[in-house]
């Protein structure tokens, strides 16, 4: 789960990291008022779950409250990589002497958190890593130990030679590592960390991503999920134990298992179709999941054909068939439905499906996908 | 031979009285696996389908000689369940549980390594050596004994591919699901090394997906060290970047970890990559010259 800059900053400050605070506002007027309260120059920053805000025009400097109003008016409503800006963060401008990069990610190859620091902040860390790898210092730490103080001092020494500055950066690194572990994060990043003209350090920007699997341990953090950024159907699917992601195409896919769901999407594309979604009904035998899945998919007006691909293991084919029948009873669907069922209780499911009208059964995954694409090209069904 | 499990494997099921644990303990037993014990705190002394239930793994090991564990407990309890198993001396632990916090598993894996044990998973369908032992949740009937080793990051996709192999007349030595999480105990590389040393495994099917670089690393090993033919399949060519595709590990980030990159790395290393599930069997047969 991604967090906004303002949320990440609140969390960082709870861990003792000095941040550049500010006010979250939703209109140009509020932005002007906030700038007025802050006095002097402010920075107006888009709060969306997307990188590259600066390049997309989502960050603007304003010298006066009037300029802050104009900046907010320009940024609000902006589309940044498919994310509409609905709120901005107004923060006092800082008197910057130098910008650094500090970040922690989970290195899956090593199975440990990787802390990275660079003397060059405020830019894409990927660019630094690629073009000037000597500018990047890396260190793996053990989550049950945390970042040891001497390792923090060693890392800090790689990006700052002044002893006082080095000490400050080391302290921030230790706090950032603690925050990462304590919150079950998968990314914490300060880019840039700035040294001000007075020699003090603060996090000018903040980024944080939480491990979805860790959220059950942190109900307070789970509450930070921003519904403005969430697709309503994706959210509903998640709450009902499904995994759903909307795509651009017109063949609605209902599959059990994430790998098979991805392979099904790929196969649709291979045969010349376009998947409308990724949808994994998961590994349980609950017919209600099929009801929810079908409801979500049929709400999408671009869907022309519905494709089921079920390989029953822990999921029983007859339960899926019953779920489908139940869903059609609650809400009839005018779209063609192609279904492929293999595995546990396949025979029972096939027998049961004979009684359900408008459902076409196929023997293999490839046959089912090919048929679904064929039906789509033939025009599919009329959406209600 | 087979890897990790065989006819002598004695399994303890942790979380045996739960919904999934009880179902699969029975299914494993029905397949012929020696499910010698179950563990559920608070339910010691009971039995399930003739399998004795213990309070702790230590007691289960002492009284039944269990030497492998299948973990079916909820995510919050899974890390400690692994610790309990390895502390009781078990050397192979399969974590079926999905949704375990990744950082907790980092810590657990470190302890597992220190004990010289092995974890498969988490978020793993487990493993099966057809005709010998099943320690997992896969539908057993699609598997046949034979010369192909299968290693995969996914559950149902593995079933699909195993079904394709069996239907084209190719049985399997061991099918291993390493799990869909970003931090897992047994990697592609570990599995490949074990398949290399298994004389019965003549060829390997590798089923990958988007996210991470495990397939790319495997490609290098296959080319330089494996000495056995490999056929691969990569799921997620149409996956949008930045989204978690069901599995916590299946996410394309920062433009790397794409299916296209993985396929390229595999093909550059001389590995045949199937574009369709139905190509898996024929490609493997060709590679094995059958």
TrEMBL record, chain A:
Substrate binds at residues 256, 313-315. Signal peptide: none annotated. It holds the Pfam family Ligase_CoA. SUPFAM superfamilies: Glutathione synthetase ATP-binding domain-like (SSF56059), Succinyl-CoA synthetase domains (SSF52210). Keywords: ATP-binding, Ligase, Magnesium, Metal-binding, Nucleotide-binding, Tricarboxylic acid cycle. Its EC number is 6.2.1.5. Residues 9-54 form the ATP-grasp domain. ATP binds at residues 45, 52-54, 94, 99. Binds 1 Mg(2+) ion per subunit. It catalyses: succinate + ATP + CoA = succinyl-CoA + ADP + phosphate; GTP + succinate + CoA = succinyl-CoA + GDP + phosphate. The keyword Metal-binding applies. Its cofactor is Mg(2+). GO terms for cellular component: cytosol; succinate-CoA ligase complex. GO terms for biological process: succinyl-CoA metabolic process; tricarboxylic acid cycle. Pathway: Carbohydrate metabolism; tricarboxylic acid cycle; succinate from succinyl-CoA (ligase route): step 1/1. InterPro entries: ATP-grasp (IPR011761), ATP-grasp_succ-CoA_synth-type (IPR013650), ATP_grasp_subdomain_1 (IPR013815), Succ-CoA_synthase_bsu_CS (IPR017866), SUCC_ACL_C (IPR005811), Succ_CoA_ligase-like_bsu (IPR005809), Succinyl-CoA_synth-like (IPR016102). One of its GO terms (molecular function) is succinate-CoA ligase (ADP-forming) activity. Mg(2+) binds at residues 191, 205. Succinyl-CoA synthetase functions in the citric acid cycle (TCA), coupling the hydrolysis of succinyl-CoA to the synthesis of either ATP or GTP and thus represents the only step of substrate-level phosphorylation in the TCA. The beta subunit provides nucleotide specificity of the enzyme and binds the substrate succinate, while the binding sites for coenzyme A and phosphate are found in the alpha subunit. Heterotetramer of two alpha and two beta subunits. Belongs to the succinate/malate CoA ligase beta subunit family. This is Succinate--CoA ligase [ADP-forming] subunit beta. It comes from Eiseniibacteriota bacterium.
TrEMBL record, chain B:
One of its GO terms (biological process) is tricarboxylic acid cycle. Substrate binds at residue 159. Gene3D superfamilies: NAD(P)-binding Rossmann-like Domain, Succinyl-CoA synthetase domains. InterPro entries: Cit_synth/succinyl-CoA_lig_AS, Citrt_syn/SCS-alpha_CS, CoA-bd, CoA_lig_alpha, NAD(P)-bd_dom_sf, SUCC_ACL_C, Succinyl-CoA_synth-like. The active site is at residue 247. Succinyl-CoA synthetase functions in the citric acid cycle (TCA), coupling the hydrolysis of succinyl-CoA to the synthesis of either ATP or GTP and thus represents the only step of substrate-level phosphorylation in the TCA. The alpha subunit of the enzyme binds the substrates coenzyme A and phosphate, while succinate binding and nucleotide specificity is provided by the beta subunit. Heterotetramer of two alpha and two beta subunits. NCBIfam families: PRK05678.1, sucCoAalpha. This is Succinate--CoA ligase [ADP-forming] subunit alpha. It comes from Eiseniibacteriota bacterium.
């Amino acid at each position: 789960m991604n967090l906004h800059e303002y949320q990440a900053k609140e969390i960082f400050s709870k861990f003792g990291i000095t941040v550049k605070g500010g006010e979250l506002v939703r209109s140009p007027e509020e932005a002007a008022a906030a700038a007025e309260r802050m006095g002097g120059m402010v920075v107006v920053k888009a709060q969306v779950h997307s990188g590259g805000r600066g390049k997309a025009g989502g960050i603007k400097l304003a010298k006066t409250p009037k300029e802050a109003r104009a900046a907010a008016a320009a940024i609000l409503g902006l589309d940044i990589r498919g994310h509409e800006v609905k709120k901005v963060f107004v923060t006092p401008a800082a008197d910057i002497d130098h910008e650094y990069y500090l970040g922690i990610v989970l290195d899956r190859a090593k199975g440990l958190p990787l802390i990275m620091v660079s003397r060059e902040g405020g830019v894409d860390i990927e660019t630094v890593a690629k073009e000037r790898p000597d500018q990047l210092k890396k260190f793996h730490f053990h989550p049950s130990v945390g970042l040891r103080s001497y390792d923090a001092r060693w890392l800090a020494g790689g990006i700052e030679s002044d002893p006082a500055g080095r000490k400050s950066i080391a302290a921030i690194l230790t706090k950032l590592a603690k925050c990462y572990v304590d919150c079950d994060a998968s990314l914490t990043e300060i880019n840039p960390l700035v040294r001000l003209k007075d020699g003090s350090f603060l996090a000018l920007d903040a980024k944080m991503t939480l491990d979805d699997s860790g959220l059950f341990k942190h109900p307070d953090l789970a509450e930070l999920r921003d519904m403005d950024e969430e697709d309503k159907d994706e959210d509903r699917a998640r709450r009902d134990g499904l995994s759903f992601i909307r795509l651009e195409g017109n063949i609605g896919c209902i599959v059990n298992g994430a790998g098979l769901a991805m392979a099904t999407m790929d196969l649709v594309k291979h045969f010349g179709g376009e998947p409308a979604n990724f949808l994994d009904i998961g590994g349980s035998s609950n017919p209600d999941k099929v009801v929810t899945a079908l409801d979500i998919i049929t709400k999408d007006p671009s869907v022309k054909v519905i494709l089921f691909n079920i390989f029953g293991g822990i999921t029983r084919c007859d339960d899926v068939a019953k779920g489908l029948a139940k869903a059609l009873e609650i809400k009839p669907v005018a779209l063609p439905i192609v279904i492929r069922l293999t595995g546990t209780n396949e025979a029972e499911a096939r027998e049961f499906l004979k009684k359900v009208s408008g459902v076409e059964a196929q023997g293999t995954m490839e046959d089912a996908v090919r048929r679904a694409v064929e039906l789509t090209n033939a025009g599919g069904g009329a959406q209600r | 031979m087979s890897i990790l499990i065989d006819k002598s494997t004695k399994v303890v099921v942790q979380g045996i009285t739960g919904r999934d644990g009880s179902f699969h303990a029975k299914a494993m037993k029905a397949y012929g696996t020696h499910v010698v014990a179950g563990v559920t705190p608070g339910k010691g002394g009971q039995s399930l389908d003739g399998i004795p239930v213990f309070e702790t793994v230590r007691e289960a090991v002492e009284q039944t000689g269990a030497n492998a564990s299948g973990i079916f407990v909820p995510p919050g309890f899974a890390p400690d369940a692994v610790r309990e198993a390895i502390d009781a001396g078990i050397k192979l632990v399969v974590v079926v549980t999905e949704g375990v916090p990744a950082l907790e598993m980092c810590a657990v894996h470190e302890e597992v390594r220190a004990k010289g044990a092995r974890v498969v998973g988490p978020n793993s369908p487990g493993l099966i050596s057809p005709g010998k032992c099943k320690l997992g949740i896969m539908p057993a009937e699609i598997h046949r004994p034979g010369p192909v080793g299968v290693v995969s990051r996914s559950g149902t996709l593995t079933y699909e591919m195993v079904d394709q192999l069996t239907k084209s007349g190719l049985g399997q030595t061991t099918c291993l699901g390493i799990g869909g999480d970003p931090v897992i105990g047994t990697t592609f590389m570990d599995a490949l090394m074990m398949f290399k040393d298994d004389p019965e495994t003549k060829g390997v099917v590798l089923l990958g997906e988007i996210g991470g670089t495990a397939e790319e690393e495997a490609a290098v090993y296959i080319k330089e060290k494996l000495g056995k033919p490999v056929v691969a399949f990569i799921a997620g060519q149409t996956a949008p970047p930045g989204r978690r595709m069901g599995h916590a590990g299946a996410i394309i980030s920062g433009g790397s970890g794409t299916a296209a990159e993985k396929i390229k790395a595999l093909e550059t290393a001389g590995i045949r990559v199937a574009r369709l599930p139905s190509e898996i069997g024929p490609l493997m047969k060709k590679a094995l010259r059958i």
